[in-house]
Amino acid sequence: MWIISKIYPYSLSQRLGAICDVLYTMWIRNSIGHLGDHSYIHYPCSLPAGRRQISIGDHTVIQSHTILACWEKYREQTFTPSITIGDHCDIGEYNHLTACNQIKIGNGLLTGRYVYIGDNAHGGLSWEEAAIPPEDRPLCSKGEIVIGNNVWIGDKATILGGVTIGDNVIVGANSVVIHDVPSHCVVAGIPAKVVKSLS
Amino acid sequence: MWIISKIYPYSLSQRLGAICDVLYTMWIRNSIGHLGDHSYIHYPCSLPAGRRQISIGDHTVIQSHTILACWEKYREQTFTPSITIGDHCDIGEYNHLTACNQIKIGNGLLTGRYVYIGDNAHGGLSWEEAAIPPEDRPLCSKGEIVIGNNVWIGDKATILGGVTIGDNVIVGANSVVIHDVPSHCVVAGIPAKVVKSLS
Amino acid sequence: MWIISKIYPYSLSQRLGAICDVLYTMWIRNSIGHLGDHSYIHYPCSLPAGRRQISIGDHTVIQSHTILACWEKYREQTFTPSITIGDHCDIGEYNHLTACNQIKIGNGLLTGRYVYIGDNAHGGLSWEEAAIPPEDRPLCSKGEIVIGNNVWIGDKATILGGVTIGDNVIVGANSVVIHDVPSHCVVAGIPAKVVKSLS
After folding, report:
1. d(CA B154, CA B160)
2. Which stretch of DSSP H or E encloses residue A46?
3. A59 φ/ψ angles, rounded to the nearest 5 degrees
4. What share of chain C is helix, strand, coil (3-state, %, to 5)?
5. Angstrom distance (rounded) from CA A27 to CA B104
6. Closest partner residue to C125 among A112, A172, A186, by Cβ?
7. I need a labelling partner for A133 at 20 to 30 A (CA). Which of A61, A150, B60, B81 fits?
């Protein structure tokens, strides 16, 4: 293995991985509604549903093992579910973006690993719905998710439906955002609350 | 790559992935104590120990990258550790179920990604045990984990030993459940507390 | 598939995986600053930057899908960023250790899955920095991270910059550690606080 590591060192495997990501993006871009210039989807990602309703801006990266899904078949609403991601975003590894309503992300979003952004829930909170398996409950949504510009979402944070996050916001690691977040602040905790205003 | 994406589009890769999961289930089912009808284990999962003590009901799916482990070698108790999963469950991707005692899951469980359900801990809280490396402390358990029917566990939640969760419960994302949860409610936070009773 | 599972059972695939990890370690060890005796890096891990500044002791395991990174290019400080891991540590799967300052880990650390230990942040909290995309903000660090001996960090915990954790500490699952932690205690929550002193 010593000789192999001289012929094919770790640094070379990294460069081949980068080429693989470029080829993967070229292969997958026809499946997506819109993928802007200089934007990349790293190998492998998962696009289980509603690929045509996904729109990604320019200079944006979707890191590997991320799921982007628009669940059309579940919608009862009259409009089409969609995910719109702006320019210069970096969606981290192992993220999960799932819409049965709308997810609208501005420019310059950075997310950590294992972030969940989802506008849908398995059923409401009635006794009747709770008594059937969650998978059999109809998907519902408290409302769309809107994320402003220059937002930074920490590792393992969770953003739920009906939430609007302003511009220049930092969401702390492991937080769960269930209420609106104003611009220019840091939020953290379960549920996430403003812990600092940027001055 | 444009031509390849016409001959071998993303949607076809998805269908081949589904076939791969069926073959993987057929291959792995002999290793498991019991795997019910119409139940699937998606490629790849990890079954590092105690595979014969794992029992999975009908119409249940174990999503990819999940670990199921019964640690027999660590037990000091007289009974055999086991994991029992009911019917119509959907165990999400990247979950980790680990037992040195018993994990008993009812019907209709749905879990998000990165959920941990484990009844064991590395040692107790004595000064003597704390002064040795955690890996060298004997595995111990506060008690079995029992999860009722129609429970929905959100992304990145953690369920620890000695906990009983009732029927029709929703466990919020990123929560840590260390106390019993009654039926018909929503729990959230670290530690998880009842935030809403279903009416 | 039934016949294949007899010829090539799951238990054999596990043993081949272990051999793969040994070969992977032999292949990758030349890229790392120091890798001690009887220490292994499981396939696959990611070492995107600063591999020569990573030092790993004896009898230590880095589980698969973990990222170790020293970001030299971002440094404004006069010293070199580094990650030092002691002996008999077990860094779990899907962890992320990232330094633009120093991460110093003692002996006997055990971490769960999805743990983040990172001393760096994208920019400070000024209005000017918040108004540019997080990725374009200069990396900065509140200070080094020091972790003592025999520490156990639970699943999905997050350890941020400027934090010193004492000896024989247990960090609860899903916690976010932003303040120093004394020796001989259990911390939990967001932010993590002492919930029990070991006696």
Report:
1. 15
2. strand A46-49
3. 55, 35
4. 20, 35, 50
5. 44
6. A186
7. B81
ipTM of the complex: 0.93
- Distance in Å, alpha carbon of A174 to nearest chain B alpha carbon: 7
Task: Report the CATH number at residue B96.
Answer: 2.160.10.10
Three-class secondary structure of residue A140 per DSSP: strand
Nearest to B28 by CA among C2, C43, C193: C2
Domain coverage including residue C96? 2-197
Neighbours of chain B (3+ CB pairs under 8 A): A, C
Pairwise CA distance, residues B24 & C9, whole Å: 11
Average pLDDT, chain C: 93
Q: What parts of chain A have a pLDDT lower than 50?
A: none
Which of B4, B151, B156 is closest, CB to CB, to A27? Answer: B4
| Tokens standing for residue C174 | 């899903």
pLDDT of C130-145, one tens digit each? 889 998 888 888 999 9
> Which chains have at least 3 CB atom pairs separated by less than 8 Å from chain C?
A, B
Domain count, chain A: 1
Residues 6+ apart with CB under 8 A from C118: C96, C97, C98, C99, C145, C159, C160, C161
Whether A65 contacts A94, CB under 8 Å: yes
CB-CB neighbours of A98 under 10 Å? 22
Question: pLDDT by residue (tens digit) across A114-142?
Answer: 999 999 888 888 888 888 999 888 888 89
